[in-house]
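User: Please run a holo structure prediction.
Assistant: Happy to. Please share the sequence and the ligand.
User: Here you go; the ligand is iron/sulfur cluster.
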Amino acid sequence: MLTYDIVIVGAGGGGLYAALETSRKKGLKVAVISKVYPTRSHTGAAQGGINAALGNVAPDSPEKHAYDTVKGSDFLADQDAVELMCEMAPKIIREMEHMGLPFSRLENGKIAQRPFGGASFPRTCYAADKTGHVMLQTLYEQCIRFGVHFLNEWFVLSLVHNGERMAGLTALNLRNGKVEGIRAKAVILATGGHARIYWNRTSNALGNTGDGVAMALRAGVGLKDMEFVQFHPTGLRRSGILVTEGARGEGGYLINSKGERFMERYAPEKLELAPRDLVSRAIETEIMEGRGFKDEEGNEFVYLDLRHLGRKKIIERLPQIRELAIDFEGIDPIKEPIPVRPTAHYSMGGIDADKFGRTEIKGLYAVGECACISVHGANRLGGNSLLDIVVFGKIAGEDASESVGEWELLPFKESLVKEEEERIKSLFDGEGKENLAELRNQLSDAMSKGVGIFREEKGIKEAIEKVEEIRERAQKLKVYDRSSVFNTNLQQTLEFLNMVEVARTIAFGALERKESRGAHFRKDFPKRDDEKFLKHSVIKRREDGELSISWKPVVITKFKPEERKY
Amino acid sequence: MEKREATFRIKRFNPLKDTKPYYQEFKLTVFKGMTLLEVLQQIKDKIDPTLAFRAFCRSAICGSCSVKVNGFPKLACKTQVITELEKFKTDTLTIEPLDNMEVIRDLIVDWDGALKKMEELKPYLIPDPKVVPQTLEEECKVLPQELKKYDKFTDCILCTSCFSACTAVNIDEKYGGPFQLARLYRFAVDKRDALKGERAKIGYAYNMWNCVRCEKCADVCPKHIAPVDGIMKLRGISIEVGLKDNPGARHVEAFYKSLLESGTLNEVLLPLRTKGIKGIIENLPVGIKMLLKGKAHSPILKPIKEHKSLVKLIKVAMEVE
Ligand SMILES: Cc1cc2nc3c(=O)[nH]c(=O)nc-3n(C[C@H](O)[C@H](O)[C@H](O)COP(=O)(O)OP(=O)(O)OC[C@H]3O[C@@H](n4cnc5c(N)ncnc54)[C@H](O)[C@@H]3O)c2cc1C
Ligand code: SF4
Ligand code: SF4
Ligand code: FES
């Protein structure tokens, strides 16, 4: 059996930073295992930037950064973790800069910073519109430099522990179809987000299916604040691919089917530049009340109109957005308005972990978007996720490296590998009465409708029923491709099964949280309710498969909850 | 909405079943806005779940989905099907896996060889302690114009399109490769790097002089990078660091000669045959366009005779059209 001291699952920013940290300690046997090659990870898609109070443009401090983050989180973030992250931010930015990261620069040679939603200062460091991309590339380069060992195109199936401590995991080698057990004293999960659950309306990569979260759930580990999913107001109509705030920043209009600039009714002053959640709700309301557009495929949307800006300005100021609309939607914004609608963008909830990335199982860590530490609370600020993944990737990598020396390798039952093999075999032998694409669409529709931007008891309950039905029907799925070489049909089916498990927890959390906070908006409870709900939800799966919920206090240090007004 | 029928001729191969690859045709209704990746997904979802291809981000940033469309490497997620059909004036698109790498299955190729080459070239910053601060209290100052030297090359998403199209890779197994050598150049001009110009020696050892400047790498790059420019500049540096009277120049001439003799130069003209003159003009290698405009770049070597005659040939072809 493959045996390591530490196995890191996921090779996005979180996983790679953890890997670099472990490589500092000599003599450790470490592997990074990922279902895609490292630089394919979704971290590469982040464009906007990464926050740190460097104060290169205007005086700033980690404390102000922490306050903005806590306020943005609608006071649900754990303040000790936020303070730690904001304190470490300038150092970790410099550390990456010293690794060669090509940040954009000011005339004096310092790292450039720009303003971003929810921040009181220009605090976001960036590399043009490719911040996540160059971050991922730079970390990967340094991993090559320090000889990090990669297992690429392996799909992790399950976690193995004895109830107290980690023993390892099982994984499917996509190249040859073999299921293998991998023994390890510590496992760091950095598997990214799960917004793909909203399959037809998400900005996320095809593989952001919440595998790590589902694995943790199955392994009996708690999931925190799952009800919080962030929607970005402007995704392309069909693909959900993100049209960044830049388009509205430069003066783009949002237009409904009556030709109205409808933001006038929702945010008379800020109009299109109101906070993300407000704009998302406005667009959604227009569509729900019949003032949206509908295309032949049944997609509903409003228009993001740039035409009045004129050819010159569009070409000069928004070249990327123009290229994106042409490439992915076949529309030139100089001539036509861009069809958009809100798109599921970021998962605030995730595996319950503390500020060292530790979970309730000793040796199991979770960092990055799959984890909930929690630094984003009910709503993440732009530029804080890239920061979160590297800070806590680093901390967890360090913590694991220092701890594994004292830990023993646990026995690993061969039969667990057999179990996973059987699970896969049963998919090959499935009845085949259900179609994967069809079920995936239904899951997406049910979640968007009941547990999307607007929520209320009745709708959530309907969604829960529908998800249960889909879960039942998923038993009849069949994998038609029987090949052991690169069986993407099998992989997509396994991913779907994971999404169904995670979707249940989102809906369950949404039902239980009877208030509105950050990204979670209940029409039947439109106010924040600190008395009853200033606390984290923790959802677990019992032996019988049913879900149970408990609550955990929020850590409050300096910042007393107040109304979130912008 | 604009709609039409189209046929996708896809090259299939499953090593466990097939002794050799074959083509399978799929007919689909396509519409304005539809990308090639959506076509592949639709085939997989509705017609044949066994079709194997890679895709992840859907937004041209992860580099997973590069395939050949009528002979040209392209990102499936960034390719508008209707535009492509119109460009080729056809109802059929042929979709194949990339070249210069082994096919694992259907449209999936083995990237390991290409990436291993990159690893061998030491594609990472080794911080120069004289330039990079030794504490995390301070950043290294880099002026915007210093960043500009290599910024474009950091756009590379490792899609391997250029590697697939590269003439030198095809002929010389030892050749470092376009995206690999371009990344080497990126570090050679980063003031924070300890090796800097010395990196040209690595390029030299990996036969950068064998680049035939066919410019195909620049042609196919979905990120509008011209790896060849980096390679030419790295050659320039290699002369600066004392690899002056090198066998490189002689070598490169011999290489061209052998190219001509073996008839491989025809590859450079491939677009001419497959796309007609109109098609070639829009897909013309950047370098040749510049030559046509009288702005030949790459000052290190004078344009070689064959290169000139190639330009002449295309000029003639354009006039004929
Ligand atoms: C379009 C877009 C723009 C964004 N822009 C910004 C921004 O400007 N600023 C900001 O701060 N944040 C931004 N974000 C959010 C941010 O990019 C992500 O939250 C962050 O990159 C997540 O990093 P990660 O390391 O947790 O996971 P990822 O980068 O998603 O990596 C997950 C890894 O886990 C692996 N994996 C998953 N499941 C398995 C499995 N079963 N087996 C093996 N491996 C597995 C994958 O292969 C991958 O390597 C943006 C997000 C999107 C979608
Ligand atoms: S110009 Fe050089 S590197 Fe680029 S494709 Fe041609 S031979 Fe390869
Ligand atoms: S240089 Fe361009 S074509 Fe080559 S791998 Fe990089 S992005 Fe792809
Ligand atoms: S899917 Fe990522 S580049 Fe096409």
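The two ends of chain B are 34 Å apart (CA to CA).
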